[in-house]
Every structure is written in structure tokens, then in C-alpha cells.
Amino acid sequence: MSRVSNNPVLVPKNVEVSITPSEVIIKGPLGSLKQRLESNVSVEFDDSQIKIIAKDATKFSNAISGTTRALVANMVKGVSGGFEKKLLLVGVGYRAQATASMLNLTLGFSHPVDYIVPNGIKIETPSQTEILIKGIDKQKVGQTAAEIRAYRRPEPYKGKGIRYSDEIIVIKETKKK
Hints:
Layout: H1 3-6, E1 9-10, E2 16-19, E3 23-28, E4 31-36, E5 41-46, E6 49-54, H2 59-80, E7 83-90, E8 95-98, E9 102-106, E10 113-116, E11 121-124, E12 130-135, H3 138-149, E13 161-164
Antiparallel strand pairs: 1-6, 2-3, 3-4, 5-6, 7-12, 7-13, 8-9, 9-10, 11-12
């Protein structure tokens, strides 16, 4: 049995949960999310707790029950509090500017890079070298941050590039003659 799925997901008072045999829909103050369910998993909601139960004892059922529990917990956290990733631009002349539906990046290329912001994601730039990515879907927030970071990954010799705020770049030593 998956140890992750043994723990119930606690639901705050301002979050509504509706469960059908094929999906879970969670609505909160920030929006609503839905997740399709595998046929090997059943979901129960009672006393402000969501319980995920594997229908049989196969290895796949146990694994997917833990995955489903983690996805549902992230959905509850997302609609009640939201998720946020912070990126830092390190390098001379590296800048970011956010508009409503576009992120303009100057990353040392001969041309500016324009990133179209996906639906459900909000991007802010508190300063020219910081990017805040916010949203209710943890997967979308992480994917958006990864796509922006992929334009100019941090290089190991000077550390220039786009990095996560909590990322540690190990600087390599240059070759000696």
C-alpha cells in the first residue's frame, strides 16, 4: 500500500469539493481545478477530508493512489493559496519586463525574446532582474518557469543566465596554463 495515499487531504472551509467516478473538481477563492481519475483509484470526501483508496493491491494501483493523493493535495493548496516561483536574471544587461500577456526578455542575444504568458498564469517583474510566476496550478507554474529558464540556462563559469531564486550554481574553475 502506498504510504502517501494513507494520509488524508485536509480541505479548508472555503474550498468546495465535488467528486464523480471519473474526476475530482475542487473550487476555491482563487479558482477551480479538475483532475481525471484512474479506474484503479476511488476517492471519498467526508468531514472536510479527502481520502484516496486503491481499489486493488496491484503495484500500479498503489503507485497511482499515491500520485493521485499528491495531485489532489496540490489542487487544494492551489485554489486556496496559490503557487509561486521566483526567477533571477544574472548578467550584465539582462532584463525582464512583464505586460498583461507577454514577457519581454533581454538576454544578451541580438534580438529580444518575447514569451507569451499561458492562461491561468500571472507574471510580475518587481525589478528588472526578478520574475515572479504565480498561478493556482502547480504543474503550469513549474512548466512556465522551466520554459523561461530554458532561454538562457546558468552557465558554470561565470554563473550568468536565468536561475531559480533558491538554485545554487557551482562555479567551475577555468583552465590554467
